[in-house]
Amino acid sequence: MEKKKDPIPHIWTIKYTLLNAAYFVAFCTIHAYAAVFLLANGFSNTEVGILLAAANIVSALFQPLIAGLIDKPGFLTNKRFILISVGIIFGGSVILMLCPGKKLLIFAVYALIYMIQFAYQPVMTALCFEYRKAGYNIFYGLARGLGSASFAFTSMFIGRIVENIGVSVLLWVNVFAMLVSALIMLTFNKNERSGGEEKEEKASGTAHNSIFAFARTYPAFFVFLIGTVCFFFAHNMINDFMIQIIRGLGGNETELGYANFLQAILELPVMALIGIVLKKIPAEKLLVFSGAAFLVKTLILVGAKSLPHMYISQSFQLFAYAVFIPAGAYYVSKTMEELDQVKGQAYITSAITIGGVFSNLISGVILDHSGIKTMLISGSAVCALGVVIGFFAMFSLPHHVRHDI
User: Is 30 left (phi over 0), alpha (psi -120 to 50) or beta?
Assistant: First the structure.
């Protein structure tokens, strides 16, 4: 396919970077500060865990279904689903602004926006590779890394603002980020094609829409997803209850912001350079390496005595999440048939989400009844199991090879 001539050099990378930046600003306020927002609205740790688990369960079931619809010819495209998601989060944030103190309503609406934002994350990744395939120049690693940087800077400032103003500021940030997302998304147009033609062009290969057909076709990937659940059990445990961990070490919301800033800003160089790294080290090896880094990150917190230990733990984000996310995206792009690409990205996010489900269901209860250290030991044990499963999957099971590359 002939490459498109961008009127401004790297314009598509700039647009995709801005889309990622807006997404991860809201991801910070919705996900990283979920416990802060909900605790301030009268929820207990156990109730926070139940709410986030409910949202994650629905999200994990929802993502592959949506991916299957997007992969098929029809109305629903990557772009349209993102716009629908943005509209739901915008509307939900406005409802939460207008109805403070109504606990049941907060439960339902917050669970919805938490779930929807997870649901459209893999679709954003698929959008990038869809446009790259069509000849549009998008530097995925750099754009994704700068998205993490936006999360980092939001975290650095939002903690102190929440301390001074209150949790309502989180909702205002959500509204602003969704407006920006919608405006940028509307600029994603393949001018010479209609939506239906876009889908017709990418409809090559065989689709594996049932979970059983998908598992048979991609055995290494599918088993690795079990390991991914374990990695993100520990990862989500730390993120969702970080404010309690930090308070146990003598900090508060300001230190929460600093900790989130550190782990997110460290993602930028790795994600920006991941394309170079992948030329030297296969994606499957990087995925296993990232799992081991998740384990080290959690183990450091088990023995943490002060806030510097928390910051050392967060610095392992450099080798854990920062490697896992782009390596997973490139692995799917390299190994899966075109009609399975969105599903592949969605299954990764679903595995991450399921890890969050188990973490939310178990971690809040452990924290309420046995304390922080017991919770972190549990997370370390589960993550260690994930490393063993991931190693077996990637080095002992067959990998699918695409026939068109």
Answer: alpha
